[in-house]
Amino acid sequence: MPGVVLGWDMGAALAMAEALRISPRAAVEFLPVIEAVMVRKLNERMAGQDD
Fold first, then answer.
1. What's the CA gap between 46 and 22, in Å, rounded?
2. Which residue in 5, 22, 25, 34 could disulfide with 17, CB within 3.0 to 4.6 Å?
3. Contact 11, 28 (CB under 8 A)
């Protein structure tokens, strides 16, 4: 859908976590929560700019 953020590329996010030496268990636990907030906030911000 144009103009809407649906989510992150989790493969890339997990690869970045690995490169940063973040525990894979922690990344799998926290990334979905962080992603959900980020997606919601970005979509709210983009919707507000269209007004």
1. 31
2. 22
3. no
Instruction: Give the total number of structural domains in the chain.
Output: 1
The domain of 49 spans 23-51
pTM of the model: 0.72
Residue 41 corresponds to which tokens in the numbers above? 């906030």
Q: What are the tens digits of pLDDT across the range 4-13? A: 888 999 999 9
Closest CA to 28 of 41, 38, 15: 15
Q: Which two tokens stand for residue 19?
A: 């490169």
Does residue 36 lie in a domain region? Answer: yes
Does residue 10 belong to any structural domain of this protein?
A: no
In sequence order, the 6+-apart residues with CB closer than 8 A to the CB of 33 are none
